[in-house]
Amino acid sequence: MFQILLKKAARALRKQHIPYMIIGGQAVLLYGEPRLTKDIDITLGIGIDQWKTIEKIAKSIQLRPLVTKIKEFVKDTLVFPAIDDQSGIRIDFIFSYSPYERQAIERARGIYFGQTEVKFAALEDVVIHKVIAGRARDIEDVKTVLLKNPDYDTRYIKKWLAEFDRSLGKNFKEEFSRLERDLKKRV
Fold first, then answer.
1. Is there a contact between 66 and 90 (Cβ–Cβ < 8 Å)?
2. N or C: at which end does the chain have fewer Cβ atoms within 10 angstroms?
3. Which residues contact 115 (CB under 8 A, 6 or more apart)?
4. What does the DSSP 8-state code read for residue 115?
């Protein structure tokens, strides 16, 4: 059912000329190990001012919004949450327009499911998203992705994590470096 929803969303977004990339657990499945995931996260290359377009797209692919005051929710969270009632699968449409997200969407990798191309975040961008999220599950995802794909672009990852460190006052780059050192000890 996930593939069907991914294809529906990809076709609808392409029809409206909305750039996007699949992130989160679905992207981890592409680069890492199989794991349980209950949703689809889609980062959009548009701002919240286009929430109505996403509402129409959601309706066109039979998704029900999970909130009643959509405009206010999107303004507060940058997320339009919807669900496919038939499967129970949630899709979060995430609005973005930062320089990093624009670049990440441009780097997205097209994967074909039959005749439909679905754009997934590049491996390095999946790692960046997961390091920033920082939950235990996210860090485990990073480890599996890096172990399975040793030829990743560490410079790209560290460059963007350093940018986020400066803007958010965090230590993402150091956390990632520590993670890399721990993984090298395993191998």
1. yes
2. C
3. none
4. T
pTM comes to 0.94
The span from the CA of 23 to the CA of 129, in Å, is 8
Instruction: Report the 10 Å Cβ neighbour count for 47.
Output: 12
Is 101:108 a contact under the CB 8 Å cutoff?
no
* pLDDT per position as a tens digit, 59-111: 999 999 999 999 999 999 999 999 999 999 999 999 997 899 999 999 999 99
Cβ proximity of 86 and 98 under 8 Å: no
**Long-range contacts of range 171-175, CB-CB < 8 Å, 24 or more positions apart?**
172/131, 172/132, 175/131, 175/134
Query: In the chain, what are the domain boundaries?
Result: 1-121, 123-187
Q: Domain 1-121 is of which CATH architecture?
A: 2-Layer Sandwich (3.30)
Q: Which residues contact 27 (CB under 8 A, 6 or more apart)?
A: 21, 120, 121, 126
E strand segments, the chain: 20-23, 39-44, 64-65, 79-84, 89-95, 109-113, 116-120
Which residues contact residue 11 at a Cβ distance below 8 angstroms, ignoring those fewer than 6 apart? 116
What's the maximum distance between 2 C-alpha atoms anywhere in the chain? 50
Question: Of 186, 184, 179, nearest to 127 (Cα)?
Answer: 179
